[in-house]
Amino acid sequence: MSKNRIKIVEKILNANDRLAKANRQKFDDAGVYTINLMASPGAGKTSLIIKTIEGLIADGVQIGVIEGDTAPVTIDSDKINAAGMPAVQINTGGECHLDAVMLETAIDQMDLTPLDLVIVENVGNLICPAAFELGTHSKVVVASIPEGDDKPYKYPNIYRGLDVLIINKTDLLPYIDFDMDYFRQGVEMLNPGLTTFTVSCKTGEGLDGWLEWLKARISK
Amino acid sequence: MSKNRIKIVEKILNANDRLAKANRQKFDDAGVYTINLMASPGAGKTSLIIKTIEGLIADGVQIGVIEGDTAPVTIDSDKINAAGMPAVQINTGGECHLDAVMLETAIDQMDLTPLDLVIVENVGNLICPAAFELGTHSKVVVASIPEGDDKPYKYPNIYRGLDVLIINKTDLLPYIDFDMDYFRQGVEMLNPGLTTFTVSCKTGEGLDGWLEWLKARISK
């Protein structure tokens, strides 16, 4: 039975990768740059999206957001709409990650034509989302100072396939024992030379670098 | 294929529940009280365990710890050993939760005879661990102030089957927008009258209530 299970899981993963490629094609056809944004619960994914919208709105950048949630609540989607951008919500029905099928459904509900950038906010989870390609152009993880400096050592998989790391909540550094060198060494070991931005979505500190990185991708 | 997959998953869940019962029997036979400790990454599970060991050691309470990790690192087990108590590590090999089979393996490596309390530190994840019974006497979740006050609304499943909630990192309340009433309303909706302790594992504030709750269970 265990062998059957492995075979079935492999088939599902293959199907997922095929659908991820189809998703990517849709994004490319529409000329939209896309990000798979991952983090543990409460690290600041939605805050980063809001700050990104606020930071790029003056340049006329149009941003769509796809919100992955395990529960049927619209807390994050409401925040995106309040910031003036369209959001499509995926309720995973208790599932711990987004996959390419769920994203396909969301894309079909979103008019990509006017958009320059689509941010997919994955379910808050440092483990499972790392295993499922969605078809986005890049993968970004938000790490959070209060989560502690040992996270790259304990949750290595999510740091491995990553394109950009955002270290958030630097405003809390004075109140927390967090060894930045130890944290960065852990990341470097898993993903040498990873593009990293150290920010506070609360104070806005350090967000310029992230916005510049994004603008360079959007204008391509 | 999808139907087969569901059947197989159901069989696995049934097998898990049977094994959880067997685990519980082993704990009961040894006269050990056991806890399944769950939280998202960095909420303070290990810190709570260390504070619990420090708080009960003077009463002669013997505590064993089973550490669930997705990666083969001994960071948490080393901390438990340094606090003077035995730890057995389960490396889930990338899996996002503990199950009853993994716990069975760990129990067999642990001498339960001298122990009064076994704390099972689950993998850092607010979603998947909620679906797998381990056979412990109670389930405890550590929530963390910096994770934000909307977590019960977004991750309801883990709050539903819970026996005790620990709200940790109250020392950070002055620096974070966290509406305690909103958070507690969300919990109350899912799990009315849930036993809750508001603590700081950093300053030690509020831990007395938790230790008293535990002592009452151990003496039973």
Fill in the keyword field for this structure.
homodimer, 220 residues, alpha/beta, Rossmann fold, seven-stranded parallel beta sheet, 8 helices, 41% helix, globular
Structural notes for this entry:
The structure is a homodimer of 220-residue chains. The first copy, chain A, contains eight helices and seven strands, in the order αβαβαβαββααβαβα. The first copy, chain A, starts with a helix and ends with a helix. In chain A, β6, α7 (180-190) and β7 (195-198) form a beta-alpha-beta unit. Chain A has a single domain, classed as P-loop containing nucleotide triphosphate hydrolases (Rossmann fold, 3-Layer(aba) Sandwich). Helix content of chain A is 41%, strand content 18%. Chain A is an alpha/beta fold and 220 residues long. The model of chain A has no long low-confidence stretch (mean pLDDT 93). In chain A, strands 3-2-4-1-5-6-7 form a seven-stranded parallel sheet, sandwiched between helices. In chain A, α1 (2-30) packs parallel to α4 (100-108) and α2 crosses α8. Chains A and B meet through α1 and α5 of A and α1 and α5 of B.
Strand content of chain A: 15-25%
- At the fourth CATH level, what is the homologous superfamily of chain A? P-loop containing nucleotide triphosphate hydrolases
From the 3D coordinates, which CATH architecture of chain A would you assign? Answer: 3-Layer(aba) Sandwich
SSE order of chain A: HEHEHEHEEHHEHEH
CATH topology of chain A: Rossmann fold
CATH class division of chain A: Alpha Beta
What's the quaternary structure here? homodimer
Sheet with the most strands: spatial strand order of chain A: 3-2-4-1-5-6-7
Rg of chain A, alpha carbons = 17 Å
Count of DSSP strands of chain A: 7
- In the predicted model, the low-confidence regions of chain A spanning at least 5 consecutive residues are none
Beginning-to-end CA distance, first to last residue of chain A: 49 Å
Q: Output mean pLDDT of chain A.
A: 93
Give me the number of helical elements of chain A. Answer: 8
Q: What is the 3D shape of chain A? A: globular
Helix content of chain A: 40-55%
Greatest chain-chain interface? A-B, 39 and 38 residues
Major sheet size, sense and barrel closure of chain A:
7 strands, parallel
Secondary structure class of chain A reads alpha/beta
